[in-house]
Every structure is written in C-alpha cells, then in structure tokens.
From TrEMBL:
Keywords recorded for this protein, A-Z: Metal-binding, NAD, Oxidoreductase, Zinc
Record carries keyword Cell inner membrane: no
Protein name: Zn-dependent alcohol dehydrogenase
PANTHER family: ALCOHOL DEHYDROGENASE (PTHR43880), ALCOHOL DEHYDROGENASE CLASS-3 (PTHR43880:SF12)
Record carries keyword Transmembrane: no
InterPro entries registered for this protein in UniProt: ADH-like_C, ADH-like_N, ADH_Zn_CS, ER, GroES-like_sf, NAD(P)-bd_dom_sf
Cofactor entry: Zn(2+)
Pfam families per the UniProt record, alphabetical: ADH_N, ADH_zinc_N
Database matches in Gene3D superfamilies: Medium-chain alcohol dehydrogenases, catalytic domain, NAD(P)-binding Rossmann-like Domain
Organism: Herbiconiux moechotypicola
Family, as annotated: Belongs to the zinc-containing alcohol dehydrogenase family.
Domain Enoyl reductase (ER): 10-359
TM region(s), chain numbering: none
C-alpha cells in the first residue's frame, strides 16, 4: 500500500510503498477514508522530537474497519471509526478514574519489541507516530485508540473529530470546565481555536471573544459563535478584553504559543481566572513570569493535552452535536487533497482563508 512518510527532518513528506502487518491481539485494520493535516505533524516533520526515522505521521484519521485481531471485542468489519492519539491502557489508576489522557502506560497500545513492526518499508521498520499513521491507505491501530462513530457523519468531518475538535472544544468544556454565563477569550481563530469557540457555545458561555491577526479568520470566528472579535494588529487586545469583560475574562485559551501572546493571555483574565496553553508554534519557547503577580491575582496557568479528552465518550458526543446542527464541522473544511499532496496541503494552511486540509483521495 501507499503511505506518505518523513525520511529526513525538514525535508518534507514523500509518498512511497510500505507494508502493513496483519492485525494481532487487539489491533484493528482500518481502510483510511479521510486523514486531516494537523500542525503537530508538521512540527514533528521539521523539528527533531527524538522520533526514529522514517516516520509515518497523520493522526486525524477516519475510515472503515477492514479486519480485526483475535482479541478485538469492540469493533467489527464495516464499522465507521475515528482514531485518536490519546493512548490509554484502560487499566492504570489514571484510566480507571476517567483520565485516559494521563494514562501511565500508553505504550500498552503498541506492539512489544519482540513483535514484528506494524509498518515496514522495504523490510525496514517505520515509526508509526502516536500509534496511528493516518497518512496511508490503511492503518493498524489498537482498539483503545479507536472510536465508533455514526455512519451518517462524512469521513472528512469525522477525521477532524480525532484531534482538532477534541483539542479545541475539550480545552473549554473539560479542562477549564466552562459554565453557562462564563466569559472566555480564544486567542488564535484557526482550525483548532474555532472548535474552542464552538465548545464555548455548547458550554453556554455568554461572552466569547476571539483574538487573531487576520480579519477573515475573525469573520469566521463570528460564524462559529464569537460574540466579540479583536484584531490584535489594530487594537490593544488586553485593553479591549478588559473593556468588554470589566475585570478580565474567566478563562483565556492560547492556541498560538508565542511568549508575547501567552503573556497577553495572562493579562486578559480576571483575578482567580485561568490561562490554558494549547498551541505551540515554537517548541523551545519559554515564558518569563513574575511569581508575585500570579500570587496576588490568584491566576493559574495550565497546559492542556488533547482537551482532557476521553475519546470514547467525547468523540461520539461531538459527532451527535454535529448531526444535530449544534457543532460546526462543514465550515472547517477548506480543501481536500490526495495522499501525495501533503507538502502542498501544509503550504496551503498558511493561506488566511484555509482552515483545515484533509486527505480524501489516493486512499484505500
Ligand atoms: Zn493534532
Ligand atoms: Zn492507563
């Protein structure tokens, strides 16, 4: 089968023939029907994150079950599924107390060193990043990383549920526990931030402020439910948020990850409010903090992983909201590409009117 790999850091993606093993244990073979391009994969392709090469990325994957291993109980051939990079063993204390995103043994969803690798190219092992490997015609995935979804949801929209949607909406709904009547600031109205706006609508926030540098993204933010928008190149975003909210927002969500932007998020929240860090443009970025300022204002800063998502609970929830017309996924879709168009797809994501790019052809 064909897969699109990274063979060298910074050298982009190449499409080539790879071999996929037959499913063993609790593995599920998925015919990939749609695969989203997430910025995290681009970060992995450009920065040495310690991942062996060659590597197979792609972690927003939707498809149809083609075969199941002998230990699989939850899925059958023909099921429509979405993959999620939350790797959970299902047995540790974190998993058993509903925090699968903090699993102590994520490696239990992978093959053991003594097993043959799931993916090889010309006999050489290929690193299946996050246990998914969605930039391929088929993917071999542990059943704990898969979620069954309603057949009515189109594959490209379903693929987005696996990372971008749960990351954005989950940060607002799960991590920050946003309540009806809350005020929130979403910094960065891109493909993930828009889902946070939609999550804030679902949670009942009454003041939803979107901050971005591009007017067309802010127009889109209004369509997703932002009650106020601020172009931070034209206005002092902190002053504007304080003017709108009075003493600051209950929560701010940083989907950008540049130190100056993160600092502005901290200045936008009220005493006792929370700043949630989700996006990271520069993995080496640091944040100088004045401790006394945090103490006096009782502010907290929290890193958010995958929107504190329990995939098998949350992904069907967002799918249902979409099918009820209460969660916008169609407007996220900007461009459909082929499996060998990943480099061009990532280049297109730089265009201000392109929100999400999904591979939908050249697949199984
Ligand atoms: Zn992602
Ligand atoms: Zn666990």
């Amino acid at each position: 089968m064909k897969a699109t790999l990274v063979r060298e850091i910074g050298a982009g993606f190449v499409t080539e023939d790879v071999e996929l093993a037959a499913p063993i244990g609790r593995e599920v073979l998925v015919d990939v029907k749609a695969s989203g391009l997430c910025h995290t994969d681009l970060t992995f392709s450009r920065n040495d994150m310690g991942t062996p090469l060659p590597m197979l990325l792609g972690h927003e994957v939707a498809g149809v079950v083609a075969a199941v291993g002998p230990g699989v109980t939850e899925f059958a051939v023909g099921d429509h599924v979405v993959g999620c990079l939350v790797q959970s063993c299902g047995k540790c204390e974190a998993c058993l107390t509903g925090r699968t995103f903090q699993c102590e043994h994520p490696e239990e969803t992978l093959r053991h060193a003594t097993d043959a690798p799931r993916v090889t190219a010309g006999g050489e092992p290929v690193e299946q990043v996050f246990g998914l490997g969605g930039f391929a015609q088929q993917a071999l995935i542990h059943e704990n990383q898969l979620v069954k979804v309603n057949d009515a949801i189109p594959f490209p929209q379903a693929a987005l549920l696996g990372c971008g949607v749960v990351t954005g909406a989950g940060a607002v709904i799960n991590t920050a526990n946003t309540q009806a009547g809350d005020s929130v600031v979403i910094i960065g109205a891109g493909g993930v931030g828009l889902n946070a706006i939609n999550g804030a609508v679902v949670a009942g926030a009454t003041t939803i402020i979107a901050v971005d540098v591009a007017d067309d993204k802010l127009e889109k933010a209004k369509r997703f439910g932002a009650t106020h928008v601020i172009n931070s190149t034209k206005a002092d975003a902190v002053a504007e948020v304080l003017a709108i909210t009075g003493r600051g927002a209950d929560a701010a969500f940083d989907f950008v990850g540049i130190p100056a932007v993160t600092q502005s998020g901290l200045d936008m929240i009220r005493p006792g409010g929370g700043l949630y860090l989700i996006g990271i443009i520069d993995p080496s970025a640091t944040l100088p903090l004045l401790t006394i300022g945090l103490i006096g204002a009782q502010k907290r800063i929290q890193g958010v992983y995958m929107g504190s998502t329990t995939p098998k609970h949350d992904i069907p929830l967002y799918a249902d909201l979409y099918l009820q017309g209460r969660f916008e996924l169609d407007d996220l879709m900007s461009r459909e590409i082929a499996l060998d168009g990943v480099n061009e797809g990532y280049a297109a994501l730089k265009e201000p009117d392109v929100t999400r790019v999904v591979i939908t052809s050249g697949l199984s």
